Fold these 2 entries.
Entry 1:
Amino acid sequence: MIRVFLKDDIDYQALKVRNLENVEPLFETEESVPDIFRYKDSYYTFCVINRAENWMIVEKFKLYDLNDVDYTDEITCPYCNSSQSDSWEAPDEGDYECETCGGTYEFQRNVEVSYSSIRLKEPVIKELRKVR
C-alpha cells in the first residue's frame, strides 16, 4: 500500500515521515503509481517517492487547449503551460518532452536584435560663407 500526498498539503522543505503522520493522503493504493496520472478528473505529476516508507508526493497540474505558445521568455509546454527555467541552455530549435505532463512538442528560439549607440567624437563641420 502506498500513500500519495499532495505537495501543497505538506511542508516540503522539512519533509520527514513524522510530518506526514497528521496529513491526510490524497489517496492510498495497491497499484503502481506512474510518474504522470489522472485521479478524480485532475492531473498529477510525480515529485518525490520513498519506497521504504511507502509514500510519494505529487503535484497537481492542468492541461490546456493552447495550440501554440508564441513569444514567451521560456520554452513553454502547449499542453500544461509549464515553463522550462533552463531554456537558455536549449538549442535554437528541437523537440522536447515536458517534465510536468509528458507531452511532446517542438520549440524554436526567436531572436530579436536591437542596437545601441554612444557618442565618441563630434563631427567636424566647416561653416561656409557666401563669397559674393
Note: The CA atoms of residues 69 and 78 lie 6 Å apart.
Entry 2:
Amino acid sequence: MKTAVQQFKNIYQYSLSEKDKIAIQVLSFKKDESILTVGEKVKGIYFLINGSYYVSNPEINGKELLLRRCTPPSILGDIEIFQHCDIQSNCHATEACTFIFVPTELYEQSLKKDPAFTELLLKELTFKLKTCTTLSRVNALSSVSIKLAAYLCTTHTENTYDGYLIVENNHHIANLIGTTNRHVNRVLKRWEDEKIIERNNEKIKILDFERLSIVAEDIRYK
C-alpha cells in the first residue's frame, strides 16, 4: 500500500491525508480483464498508477469503437461522479495495471471539499474533452490507413518480442477502428510491400516508424 500511495503522489502531485489513506484501496487488473462496463453504476474514482487500458464505446452494430489507450496519469469514474450517471464507456486492461481507488463515499465526505483535488479532476476532464473531440473527428472522417497507422503508433512500445509488436488479431483491430477485417489486411499488405512493416502471424514489426507516423498524421489514440 505504501508504495502505491507514493506512486500516486509522484504521478498526480497530490498528497492524501493519513485519514484518507485508510479509506482508499489498491486495485489490480490482469491483461484483458474488464475494468468498467457501460451501463453499470460507478463506485468511485480510479487513478491509474501502473499499466495501460483501452477505452471504447459499443456501437449499434455490436462493434467496439476505440476512443483511446490510457497510461499514467489517467483517471476513470470522474465523469460519472460529476454527472451522477452510469458508466459511459467500456474499459479493459491491455496489460496488467494497478489503480488507487477512491470510493464515492470518501470523495463526497472529504475530497470533494478540497480545491486541490477538484483541480486534479478538472485537469483530467479538460484533457478528455480535448482528446475525445479530436478522436471523434478522426473516427468519423479519417481513412482506414490513418486510423490503422495511428493504432500501431500508439501501441508500438508495448508487448514487443524480438522487435515485433504483438497485436490484437486483425478482426479485433478492425472492430476497434471501425472498419472490416478485409480492409485491414489490404492496408497491411500494402505496407509490407512498401517495407514499412513486416508481418509474422499475429505479430508486426515496424520497419519504418517515421513513415508510419507520417501516414498517421501524428494522431495517437491517447
Note: Residues 196 and 209 are 7 Å apart (CA to CA).
